[in-house]
């Protein structure tokens, strides 16, 4: 029986219990993740209650626990994260997906509808009774502020500018905007286009769907698979035509660079492609003297080292290829800078701003490219806020949900207090989910994506040169 079939035999409660047992046995995250994640404090609370008071966790407690994981990637074990997602997938198989979870996890469909009638929805959200009805239907917390709907979404704008056609010149990128930028903050995606074009990079916006993270978080495997397959094809086709795939959303980047390829090297297709022997598992190893691979005995490790069951139906070689090809926009621009191909003299911006590196950016292991790029702007005083374990608390759609809103606010408060204490003129962060949380917690401080600041600085330079 393969791993996917094995997982399908187990109930969602059994799968999440396995995670609880494994983490209770290990105990590392009891203290390590105490203040950065909602999942582990709850896991140890349920476990301790069972051991000390003999009160086993009910099925609903286990499901609520699984919902507390936002796949931020901060905890040490990818197989634990896979176990949580496996439990959510099993739950959808057993019970289906509630309407509220479907509405909240499908930013793409909601965004497409919203952008058809932005005036209507914006007026509706301003009428308190109507806004509360919409929130109730979507399971959104009463006190959570809803973002406004822009007049034109990014994809319509890009089509109007002819960016949906592959530019004939080199160098060029295939830009993956992500749903939140495309449908809620199109000014961020337009800023990405502007700074790239300012540096003579041709921009192509290929056909694209939601990256799949929000639907995966709800355990909706089929919809996630469909979207991932479409994006893989579209971005790899564009790469074959000479475009470098680039994205500006750290969550989409984390999904495509890190999550999507987890376990793919253990697949039969990959092992065949690298000519592994019959009792061998080859793992890529770039250390000198290793010949590109470390070899392990398949008879000993074959049962543990397996492809991730939630993506095992998607071509593992394509998953690896995309993860190697796609870059974060900041990372791409920093590499242009290192090659001397970036305009290093943006215009002056006077101001004291704070940069927060979001978890999905940190987990891509790409350094801090935006801090280096923003350091090129004369007059800008940029300091960093937040350490490796700081979290805004939003967790994608989790912070919108009725049952988690308060916890999300509590989790983000520690970071908000650090920001308030420094009283910056603006907050800079590449995550639009953090932006929503910061705007909710600190409406008095404006929040920008680093690309918006860079665009402003290049605009100033161009205005001065006119
Ligand atoms: S996530 Fe990993 S390190 Fe943390 S408690 Fe669970 S098994 Fe241990
Ligand atoms: S991925 Fe993030 S939210 Fe999920 S258990 Fe790990 S640290 Fe917690």
Please summarize what this structure is.
Helices cover 54% and strands 9% of the residues. With 466 residues, the protein is of the alpha/beta class.
Overall geometry = globular
Tell me the name of the CATH class of the domain at 342-465: Alpha Beta
Main pleated sheet: 4 strands, parallel
What share of residues is helical? 40-55%
Kindly state the mean pLDDT as a whole number? 92
CATH architecture of the domain at 342-465: 3-Layer(aba) Sandwich
* Ions, cofactors and other bound molecules: iron/sulfur cluster
Evaluate the radius of gyration: 23 Å
Low-confidence stretches: none
Output the strand order for the largest sheet.
Answer: 2-1-3-6
Total number of beta strands: 10
Number of helices: 25
Q: Note the gap between the termini.
A: 68 Å
The CATH topology of the domain at 342-465 turns out to be Rossmann fold
Task: Estimate the strand proportion.
Answer: 5-15%
What class do helices, strands and sheet pairing give? alpha/beta
């Amino acid at each position: 029986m393969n791993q996917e079939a094995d997982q399908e035999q187990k109930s969602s409660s059994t799968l999440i219990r396995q995670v609880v047992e494994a983490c209770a046995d290990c105990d590392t995250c009891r203290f390590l993740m105490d203040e950065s994640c909602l999942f582990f404090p709850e896991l140890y609370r349920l476990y301790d209650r069972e051991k000390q008071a003999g009160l086993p966790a009910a099925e609903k407690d286990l499901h609520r626990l699984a919902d507390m994981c936002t796949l931020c990637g901060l905890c040490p074990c990818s197989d634990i994260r896979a176990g949580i997602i496996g439990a959510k997938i099993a739950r959808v198989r057993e019970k289906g997906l509630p309407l509220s979870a479907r509405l909240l996890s499908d930013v793409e469909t909601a965004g497409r509808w919203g952008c058809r009638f932005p005036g209507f929805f914006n007026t509706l959200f301003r009428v308190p009774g109507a806004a509360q009805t919409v929130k109730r239907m979507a399971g959104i917390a009463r006190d959570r502020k809803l973002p406004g709907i822009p007049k034109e979404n990014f994809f319509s704008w890009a089509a109007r500018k002819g960016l949906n056609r592959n530019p004939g010149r080199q160098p060029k990128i295939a830009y993956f905007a992500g749903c939140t930028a495309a449908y809620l903050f199109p000014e961020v995606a337009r800023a990405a286009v502007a700074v790239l074009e300012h540096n003579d990079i041709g921009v192509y916006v290929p056909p694209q769907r939601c990256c799949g993270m929000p639907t995966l978080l709800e355990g909706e495997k089929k919809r996630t698979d469909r979207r991932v397959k479409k994006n893989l094809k579209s971005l790899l086709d564009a790469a074959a035509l000479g475009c470098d795939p680039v994205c500006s959303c750290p969550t989409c980047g984390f999904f495509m660079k890190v999550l999507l390829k987890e376990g793919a090297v253990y697949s039969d297709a990959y092992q065949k492609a690298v000519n592994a022997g019959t009792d061998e598992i080859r793992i890529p190893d770039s250390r000198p003297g290793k010949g590109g691979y470390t070899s392990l005995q398949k008879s000993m490790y074959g049962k543990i080292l397996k492809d991730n069951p939630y993506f095992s139906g998607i071509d593992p070689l394509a998953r690896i290829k995309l993860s190697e090809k796609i870059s974060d926009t900041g990372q791409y621009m920093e590499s242009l800078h290192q090659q001397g191909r970036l305009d290093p003299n943006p215009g002056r911006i006077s101001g004291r701003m704070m940069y927060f590196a979001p978890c999905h950016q940190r987990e891509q292991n790409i350094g801090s490219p935006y801090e280096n790029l923003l350091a090129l702007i004369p007059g800008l005083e940029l300091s960093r806020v937040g350490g490796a374990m700081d979290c805004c608390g939003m967790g994608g759609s989790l912070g919108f949900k009725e049952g988690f809103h308060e916890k999300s606010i509590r989790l983000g408060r520690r970071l908000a207090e650090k920001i308030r204490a420094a009283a910056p003129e603006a907050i800079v962060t590449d995550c639009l989910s953090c932006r929503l949380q910061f705007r909710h917690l600190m409406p008095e401080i404006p929040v920008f994506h680093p690309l918006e600041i860079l665009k402003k600085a290049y605009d100033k330079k161009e205005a001065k040169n006119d």
